[in-house]
Write a structure and sequence with these properties.
elongated, two-stranded antiparallel ribbon, mainly alpha, 212 residues, Ferritin, signal, single chain, DUF4142, 2 strands, DUF4142 domain-containing protein, Ferritin-like
Length: 212
Amino acid sequence: MRFAYFNTFVSITLVMLCLTLAAGVASAAENQTLSAEEQAFLNRAMSDDAAQIAMAQMALKKSTNPQIVALANAIIQERTALDAKLSQVLAATTAQGKAKPVAASNDATLTALQSLNGDAFDKTFAGLLIRDHYRIISAYESMKSVCTHTGLQDITRDAVPALRGNLTVALDFLRSENWTRSAHPSTLATVDSHGSKVPVYWESISIVAAPW
């Protein structure tokens, strides 16, 4: 009987010890500070989320193309969830005296998009997504390799597949629409999508102003 009581006591003690250690690890993760590089990335990532959500919301209002509508809905859902995770990291660092990131202004792009309709809007929207996603995916990949903040490291690792997925959808849309070089001067950029080289033409004036 005493042996049974002893075993029960040991089991309870071990459970309590594990819970205490887990709580300590979680607390340590929450109390981690961000390096200057991590803070700069957090600012950029949240600004990008805000810009992509704003463009996607406009696409839902202006586009009737099923592919564009589905892509816009996916971006709103995924970026909102991603921003919530980034906000949790921000909340912890703000309590430690870190400044809250200020979203970058996207007014010029939104104004230009607002002036477009139909096929021109859809192609420009997809082109902007491609441009922005290559940039932000590169930022996520770079941060993933150097990040020491546990929470931010998990976010950067988990976010990339979804970002690449939306990039692929946008690329597939433009391919299906036979997106070609326009008469205006442009430069050819060879970009890497899932290991395959994809030629993308960027208008030298502005992709938003490209005459589709």
